[in-house]
Amino acid sequence: MLNKSIIEDILYAALSSGGDFAEVFIEDNFTTEISTVGGNIEKGMSGRDYGVGIRIFNGLNSIYAYTNDLSKDNLIKITKKASKAIKENPKNIIINFDKVVIPNLHEHKLAPSKIALSRKLELMERATSAAKSYDDIISQVTVNYLDQEQNVLVANTEGVFVEDKRVRTRMLINVAAEDLGQMETGYVGPGALMGLEFYDTIDIEEYGREAARIAKTMLYADYCPAGNMPVVVDNGFGGLMFHEACGHSLEATSVAKGVSVFANKMGEKIASEVVTLIDDGSMTNHWGSLGVDDEGNKTQRNVLIEKGILKGYLIDKLNGRRMNMKATGSGRRQSYRFSPTSRMTNTYIDNGESSKEEIIANTEYGLFAKYINAGSVNPATGDFNFSLSEAYLIKNGKIYKPVKGATLIGNGSKILKDVDMVGNNLKIGQGYCFSTSGAIFIGAGQPTIRVKSMTVGGREEA
């Protein structure tokens, strides 16, 4: 991607004015995006993004520069400019590139760039047709297809010199159902850190029908009652609730600055004993996985909470300096235009001992949240809110009827302590996370869980 001698020159130039650490991040990224509405192509884009990011530390200070002009003269020029911003006495640091290159653990068979456009459109048409034919009330089907081949190289003055190839594909299916002037939508978005062989492992028509089913169900649903009640959250992307409500507050980005509700609580009981929270970027071929993170560290399984006890944080290199702790393979960025910081990968509540059926049967009255749509959190306070794309009332230990317009409102610290049942049907969904280092791919998951009391927003009092 860049000649090793040029990388070496950049790193020496980076330390020329007193920095004590320097890093080069090189990215060569190929992306294809296609959108269809009703089976007709709405837009299509295919492109390449190629650039270099250069980061320099001096103690707890850092500076980051990036460019898509990869000429040696320009790279050395901007590096020296950045280096002058971290002024101190120059250090005599020996650079060693002899570290073993980590093999790519997330293999792919069908590189998207080698697959004809007609094949990708055929997959989209199959999803569209399945959704359209589900019911006459289906008024519109929008399908967005994405694939990406991202090649990165990370080198730094501590001897890291590693490459990672990340091949991803995903299809987002959004279906609208309309009747008597009312409209509701359903959405699914399967994806993986795989090539086009991913679509041989799933039934894309079934996903199309599932999106249509959600839209139809919500169209004829009553409005959700408001109030405090037990909430059962189904397995899969329901884990987004813990990604938002707890995960962001466990990232060193906020912990190191002391603005997280979980700062300085290592070893303390912060959750119910049935809660074990894990972040694992090494899970084979999962949407949020990487071979190495964007600082060149091998990804790993990080136990954040174990049986209610806070065991760890997600730590990047710079915040690790601030916390005097090692990086955990959690340094991530959207592209070379962003400086990395601590971010989640695949974050999930681990399996418990109850079945989904037992959890529902033990809930006299409450809300069953089948699909969480979106949410937000304030890491400093842990306060969050989520909207639900599919939900049901539970009555007498059984699913009673669908309801729409439901929101979940609460606090991350409280919800962790209020989880009183955890299922044994772990599933991880796919999504995106937007934060200080840009938009990144994440997995979020859990088994079915029950929170003994949550504030549910709706249109009427329960």
Automatic annotation (TrEMBL):
What domain of life does the native source organism fall in?
Bacteria
Metalloprotease TldD/E N-terminal domain boundaries:
22-85
Looking at the record, the residues that make up the Metalloprotease TldD/E C-terminal domain are 227-458
- Outline the extent of the Metalloprotease TldD/E central domain: 112-219
The record's section on InterPro entries has: Metalloprtase-TldD/E_C, Metalloprtase-TldD/E_cen_dom, Metalloprtase-TldD/E_N, Peptidase_U62_metallo, TldD
Name used for this protein in its record = TldD/PmbA family protein
